[in-house]
């Protein structure tokens, strides 16, 4: 995410349809690993 922000990317789309993990695990990982980057 830092790299994308560094090149002025303002939008990112996530396609969860083809994930192998179940949706609950995927959403928890997003909450734990990705969303904190947006609170700084």
Low-confidence stretches: none
How many individual domains? 1
| Average pLDDT number | 80
Structural class: mainly alpha
Order of SSEs: HH
Approximately how much helix is present in the residues? Answer: 40-55%
Q: How many DSSP helices?
A: 2
Overall 3D shape: flat
What portion of residues belong to β-strands?
Answer: under 5%
**Separation, N- and C-terminal Cα atoms:** 13 Å
Radius of gyration: 12 Å
Describe this structure in words.
The chain has one domain. Helices cover 42% and strands 0% of the residues. It has helices spanning 2-6, 23-34. The longest helix is centred in the C-terminal third of the chain and has 12 residues, at 23-34.
Brief overview, please?
By secondary structure, the chain is mainly α. The chain has two helices and no strands.
Keywords:
mainly alpha, 40 residues
Which helices and strands, and how do they pair?
Layout (H helix, E strand, L loop, with lengths): L1 H5 L16 H12 L6
């Amino acid at each position: 995410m830092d790299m994308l922000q560094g090149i002025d990317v303002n939008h990112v789309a996530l396609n969860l349809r083809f994930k192998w993990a179940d949706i609950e695990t995927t959403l928890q990982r997003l909450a734990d690993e990705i969303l904190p980057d947006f609170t700084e």
